[in-house]
Design brief:
Number of helices: 12
Order of helices and strands: HHHHHHHHHHHH
Largest sheet: none
Helix content: over 70%
Number of strands: 0
Number of domains: 1
Distance between the termini: 18 Å
Radius of gyration: 20 Å
Length: 275
């Protein structure tokens, strides 16, 4: 019984839908770049944000205004919202992975096969990891192609390709954390009917806490630590593109993911599965 191949088959339709929608959105964002690279557009944005408080600007990553005349900076800023969607997709994939079989009744089919719980868990994890990786690669390829289509003639090709790659890598790493946490949710939930609300709610909750941490860090002592609650703030696309990955966030992300998966594996081994 090859649970891995079965998982890939079951996830195929959702993968195609999410990949096409998100990649198309990335392409449309990139198609807007020629309008934004005009100096008058940049000046207009500066004027509109000049009345914002420093806290508000920091909350939305505008405390250091991106140079929208540079395609990679424009793309990195826009992709922070696509990264939010990627986090939701990863959380949905993880949360659905194990509880979905029980709720739909297909767990009976797996019970009838000579396959251990450990194999079910590991192969489902690998299947969802492979699908999320393929999703990111699809978005990356479309983004790189659109970057080449819409960049200015003077923009270096290698710098553009590398900048887009780093932005997608940031989205990938934050998504993997949500995928791992989703697996923990999947063994804790009683029914798959809750998964969509919980997955979306969890990702948005961490995102909002991260925003509050950035906005109020200068006013309330210690609240800046809320950033550690938000995987999206570990790898902010614009920051990663400019400065690379911070080792401390890679370590924190690895620890959170590893603990989530180990806890999920342990609970799943002992769980009284419903057929």
């Amino acid at each position: 019984m090859n649970v891995f191949r079965l998982e890939l088959h079951n996830l195929k339709r959702g993968f195609l839908l999410w990949s096409l929608v998100i990649a198309s959105t990335a392409f449309c964002f990139m198609a807007l770049y020629p309008s934004f690279k005009r100096t008058d557009m940049t000046a207009m944005l500066d004027a509109k944000t000049s009345g914002f408080s420093p806290e508000m600007l920091k909350m939305f990553g505008l405390d250091t205004m991106p140079d929208f005349t540079v395609i990679t900076e424009f793309f990195a800023y826009e992709m922070q919202y696509i990264a939010l969607a990627g986090g939701i997709y990863a959380a949905l994939r993880g949360t659905t992975a194990l509880i979905g079989e029980e709720t739909s009744g297909t767990i009976e089919y797996l019970y009838s096969q000579p396959v251990r719980r450990s194999s079910i868990f590991i192969e489902k994890l690998l299947g969802n990891f492979a699908v999320f990786t393929a999703y990111i690669l699809f978005v990356l390829v479309v983004s790189e192609i659109s970057g080449m289509l819409f960049k200015s003639a003077s923009a270096p090709v290698c710098d553009t390709l590398y900048g887009i790659f780093m932005v997608c890598a940031a989205m990938y790493l934050s998504g993997l954390i949500f995928l791992a946490i989703g697996f923990l949710f999947s063994v804790l939930l009683k029914s798959a009917r809750q998964i969509t609300a919980i997955s979306i709610g969890f990702v948005f909750a961490t995102y909002i806490l991260g925003l509050l941490g950035k906005a109020l860090s200068s006013n309330i002592k210690g609240i800046g630590n809320l950033r550690y609650v938000s995987p999206l703030d570990y790898f902010v696309p614009a920051d990663v593109m400019k400065n690379g990955f911070e080792i401390k966030y890679i370590v924190i992300g690895f620890i959170v993911s590893a603990l989530s998966l180990l806890a999920a594996y342990s609970i799943y081994q002992k769980k009284d599965l419903r057929s």
